[in-house]
Write a structure and sequence with these properties.
Elements: H1 9-17, H2 44-48, E1 53-56, E2 59-63, E3 76-80, E4 83-86, H3 92-102, H4 107-111, E5 113-118, E6 123-128, H5 155-164, E7 167-168, H6 172-180, H7 198-201, E8 243-249, H8 254-257, E9 272-275, E10 295-298, E11 307-308, E12 312-313
Parallel strand pairs: 8-11
Antiparallel strand pairs: 1-4, 2-3, 5-6, 7-12, 8-9, 9-10
Length: 314
Amino acid sequence: MTLGLNKSIGLLAALLILGIAGVTVYRNLGDDPIASPPELAISADEASSPRQSVTIPGGIYLIGHESGPRDVRPSRQIELKPFEIDATEVTNAMFAQFVDETGYLTDAERSGKSLVFDLASQQFTRRQGANWKTPTGPGSSIVGKEDHPVVQVSWYDAQAYAHWAGKSLPTEFQWEAAARGKNLEQDYPWRLTPVSRFPAMANLWEGNFPIHDQGTDGYSGTSPVANYPSAENGLYDLAGNVAEWTSSWYATDSYDRIDIQNPSGPTSGEARVTRGGSWLSSDQTGTSEAMVWYRSKLAPEMSNNFTGFRCVGK
């Protein structure tokens, strides 16, 4: 789907409800607010403590799925060199430290608005005053949610944080290799067994989307990072909580033309790939965004309250 400036928010909502992650590019409008982190109920030492990272060994990995959507076919084997990836998504406390040290203004702060899925109205709206400090608009706050993943960050915001941290965003192929591991048959970051249940495994939408999230996993909206079981390699929240930006440009036919060794994807495009399920993800169609091979896309200027990121070492 081509992202365009002139698509209406009604069409955007309809596409998102259908599980299509392509969304409208918006212009940055409005006055720049003063960049200051909120008061956090966490000490500066805790906020600045480095998060644990996981080493993903080099070798052969499988990407894609032959029975999945067109953009995850053909399934390919690729070779990756070893890399380090953050065990968790970047949290509000971590992003607050970045803002405190740099005075950085996010795209949502510059434009004065951002996309919000509102649980009460069951609608997607472009809401004035929504940004990383007030994720659903005025009256909302991240105070008490310092260990939740930061949201309302564009690809450019995530890239700026990664540069400040001396890291980078993962390619979508690094992300999938980290989520799938060496188990070529694995659709999820953990093996599903007869006793496995999604509410116990990941923060996902439960119930009829978008009518009602039953919240039997304990949360409607984001949850603290590392709140659910990790993958076998020690990575958390790959299937739920928030979707994650990658460094890769999106193309429907990416897998037809990528390099076999250390692929990064197309060199240009209109949207960046996001990976992983979020608290909004549902498997009502039989295919879930929580599956390790599922690809989504967003315009790099876009921010919302269900997409965040994690980093890899350079």
